[in-house]
Fold each of these.
Amino acid sequence: MVAAMQSRISGPRTGRPRSAEADAAILAATRAALVELGWSKLTLGDVATRAGVAKTTLYRRWAGKNELVVDAVAALFDELELPDRGTLAADIEGVVIQFAAVLARPETRSGLMAVLAESTRDDALRERIRTSVVDRQKRLVLEGRARAQVRGELPPEADASDAARSADLIFDMVAGAVVHRTLISAEPVDPPWVRDFTRVLLLGLAGAATGP
Amino acid sequence: MVAAMQSRISGPRTGRPRSAEADAAILAATRAALVELGWSKLTLGDVATRAGVAKTTLYRRWAGKNELVVDAVAALFDELELPDRGTLAADIEGVVIQFAAVLARPETRSGLMAVLAESTRDDALRERIRTSVVDRQKRLVLEGRARAQVRGELPPEADASDAARSADLIFDMVAGAVVHRTLISAEPVDPPWVRDFTRVLLLGLAGAATGP
Amino acid sequence: MVAAMQSRISGPRTGRPRSAEADAAILAATRAALVELGWSKLTLGDVATRAGVAKTTLYRRWAGKNELVVDAVAALFDELELPDRGTLAADIEGVVIQFAAVLARPETRSGLMAVLAESTRDDALRERIRTSVVDRQKRLVLEGRARAQVRGELPPEADASDAARSADLIFDMVAGAVVHRTLISAEPVDPPWVRDFTRVLLLGLAGAATGP
Amino acid sequence: MVAAMQSRISGPRTGRPRSAEADAAILAATRAALVELGWSKLTLGDVATRAGVAKTTLYRRWAGKNELVVDAVAALFDELELPDRGTLAADIEGVVIQFAAVLARPETRSGLMAVLAESTRDDALRERIRTSVVDRQKRLVLEGRARAQVRGELPPEADASDAARSADLIFDMVAGAVVHRTLISAEPVDPPWVRDFTRVLLLGLAGAATGP
DNA sequence: GCATAAACGAGACGGTACGTCAGGTCTTGAA
DNA sequence: TTCAAGACCTGACGTACCGTCTCGTTTATGC
């Protein structure tokens, strides 16, 4: 998506325009191939074939496997929402379950971890992942906290810097715990675990907020 | 190491014996190559050359890139310790910092994430990682908790099942937060973060232990 | 040229007419590219760019690389002439030197041999070469012989069939020797060689004409 | 052949030796592909497949299509011989017919001309062709002339330099005429043509030898 | 003078082959 | 039997051209 968008921003106004169908077909084919084959056995030639597209068409839009997979997986995270369930605890449980569900999908499991691994040596890729995937989920933390503060479940933040640090910490703790449980421990994120986790997290946050 | 050991279980007693130096040289070369090249550009041919060994020698001991990298990285985690720092908070801070230091190494960043990605589609590999890397760190949780219970900082567990569930949760939360902070957020695990994290975690655990 | 002409024979009478400049620019660009790159590295896209023309414009006129190169090279042969130098020997030497000069040009060397090679498997191409390049040079043989017969240097032919056969043989011998010397032996067609060759050829022809 | 030989001259004495069967299979497959497809549609991937060999094996021995085709075609010229037919005229006719037969083969027609075309821009290739193909046929001229001198059909050469120049000229004339007749005029080298050609050539040579 | 219709530039498109590279296996001779 | 060396087969890589196809634009003619 990102690639396609960028190419249109400063794109030429002459020549045959790029096919929008091709973009969609390639991303869908990429997700299908991730499900069937996993990241390491996914080949761009195969993706092109599945998409009914020539390899050159694929390379015209994405620089390589990593960029393609990031874009293919990023879309899956856009469906995360934070419906108002009435209490902070319920909100957290809701988002944890949704997040775990996305991570449990085979295309996410295999694709996301692999590009994260690659990103440790490729700053451009890391930035792309951060932009397309990670940072977009921080909104959930901010929204949930704001809602809880309206409800009086959490006190308002003292200053903006504290607020940002705290949001980052919460994000690391929530996303980290779910990622670890799902992808590393490879255990299910089932209701008991969610309840336990939410309880510990909320008590910790509450204590930290009122504490010294 | 594991591969080498296994091969000796039912190993031959005749012919030229395998070189022990080769094992060590290969693992060291693998770590060096991970640092320089990262997982995706690491090639077994190159590792063999660096180790001064033929490719056949390498394949005689490890089935492929993944197995080799797991063994090469696993050793790095064995150096984690839990020195008694007097309080549970200090103990947690200590292990978090150590853990983060190991994850921050380039050979771990790139190698570990990649094999974790592969493990999502390869049960044998997942088991190997769990055995060689993940489960070995749970001892730190168990040891720290036992020590805190002796000190009276935490109440004893009611029953064994609860104890196990709780240890798993703590492990997911600690390891998950550090992994996410280090490898995904790509932000430093610096003292302020460690302090904030430990504070939230401890308050949460304490609250959960005493509460209903 | 041929293509362009043909297209006009049954051409439409409406719509924008084809640009005559484009034809010339393309052929000139083709010759330039042949000089710089040789046949095998010449690409139609590059020729189009050099000519300041779109690829479609090129393909509208020529079916492919071979046809284009034939037309580009054919023009070079039209400059061959047979000025009357007074004797048959001098006439032959003159035409041999001219012919060698055309063959020695880089665009001819590389282009002509390549399309000849292609023509061994493509009858239409062979016919095109014969029409555009080869047969047009036979006129030199016929003209030279007629002139020599007028001068009394050669006897008149007994019958037309003999005359044709003999002209073909002379053509094969002259053109063959020059082509072989230039393109295969890759030795210069210098005055001593021309003198030697002409002497042997003339003595042979004279002997054959008078002999049994 | 040449490539294989060279690689063995300074070749290593360790490691698995190159397969001699592969060499032969590749050259045979190349000739077969030349017959079926011609030079321009011949692909190295297809040759490798026909030979039952990997592309890398092929590229380990030959630098590219041109080198491969030269070696594949060169072998065909080694079968030319000069059996003693009693007179110089008969000897020449014999070798002309043999030479024409080799050139008329589809693998030679298409392959040889193409590499000659390439050689006009590649000195190494020209040298290779000269060594592998062209110069080896000069022996026929030298042998035939020597035999004719023994028989008294031709006078002995005055000095070595003249002898060499004369041999080159004869070679250009014989080979050139046959090449032109076969590949360019695309007319058959049939007995009448051979007789006419031989007659003109011999009379010319005889006249030149005796004349001033 | 305005519609028609073809040619034009640009460049994306589906293909095919390229020459290279890595994975993993096999074959040699030496240790 | 292992080892170093290196050839081998397989299959993917990313690139280059091919010849075709859309686009929007230009330029003659003929109604």
Note: The longest helix of chain D spans residues 123-151.
Amino acid sequence: MHRPRKEMIAETRAKLIAAARRAFGTIGYAEASMDDFTASARLTRGALYHHFGDKKGLLEAVIAEIDAEMAARVNEVASRAPTRWQRFVDECTTYIEMALEPEIQRIMFRDGPAVLGDPAQWSNANACVGSMADHLAVLQGEGVVVPGLDPETAARLINGASSQASQRIANSNDPEATSKMVVAAFKQLLEGLLKKNGGRTD
Amino acid sequence: MHRPRKEMIAETRAKLIAAARRAFGTIGYAEASMDDFTASARLTRGALYHHFGDKKGLLEAVIAEIDAEMAARVNEVASRAPTRWQRFVDECTTYIEMALEPEIQRIMFRDGPAVLGDPAQWSNANACVGSMADHLAVLQGEGVVVPGLDPETAARLINGASSQASQRIANSNDPEATSKMVVAAFKQLLEGLLKKNGGRTD
DNA sequence: CCCATCCGCATACGCTCCGTATGCCAATTG
DNA sequence: CAATTGGCATACGGAGCGTATGCGGATGGG
């Protein structure tokens, strides 16, 4: 019945993160009572303060978990693309698709920035943007993308457009149709990064 | 000494908005105590509840004020551009410049969305995006911008990129240099909207 | 000019939530 | 088996918020 202590500890951490993620993703960070969601995990605030310091610390843990999931999925999808440019485009569109989840929008796009500040400065949640920037750098080296751009900067701008894209689709009353429009506009913007006459050399 | 009642009322409304704007823009919405910032305007929460219903209502009023200011400035600058495309680009870069203010970033990009939801659905704060969408529509009609795009959608995506651009510049430790890089990348993205762009792939 | 009404705003109260200090018990260690 | 560590719960004080209530001065009709 009594499992080793390390496992118990890891389990309560996981329970807290899961409960918090559910609460933050539905009613939102500000409305989520620590007493309530710790109780929903059969724990108390005592455990929360012990493991995460405070409510913000717990939010950071939730965000790190989500970011890792998103990065894993993005990398998996991108690895199946035929060309490097296509791979980059696929990364972006997969990102947009994932970000349709209300939980993602709420935690990563709304409450996260409000509580923790500029996402660009989150220490443990930049996997997605990082890999996009890497791909952009390679594409520049290959002459597909215009030279002179800072890859990280470009990736951030695109990330901003992506999150808007997701929000627009998610809040539409006809998501199917809106999705087509939004993704088309998004891809059009990406075209601006391509070298003229030099794109699609593959 | 006793001025008409209407003026007094307008004055307390203005005082509350100004005090809230200062508090929200510096310490942030969540940390701003209603007791504190109403007191700083020599008022109490009673006045706040009477005029704005609650803290969120006051935030809406603050946001409406800021949005109006930004739209006015954007329109003023844009009206001096030689060509329509340049006018559009100027709108965007002016927007980015204004958004460098910490107050704007905090209220419009961070706390606002967290408290009031997707900015695209704010009823009284879409003047900037609206005028950008209008200009895009005109540019499409003139054949400068690729056809088939929904102007409002494109404007939203660009807006997302713009806000990231501002945040990146504002949080840089060398804003001058960063600004050049970011604006260059931003303009490059806008190029994607222009017709006669080679390398279209979809 | 006076009085009744209205309403803008302040005050008072109870509640919820949060952070810290403290305590308890199970698991580890020698 | 005793000692100790530390994971987690409990207890307490304070701050902030929303609502109900009260006050005083401006307003408008007689």
Note: The first helix of chain A runs from residue 5 to 26.
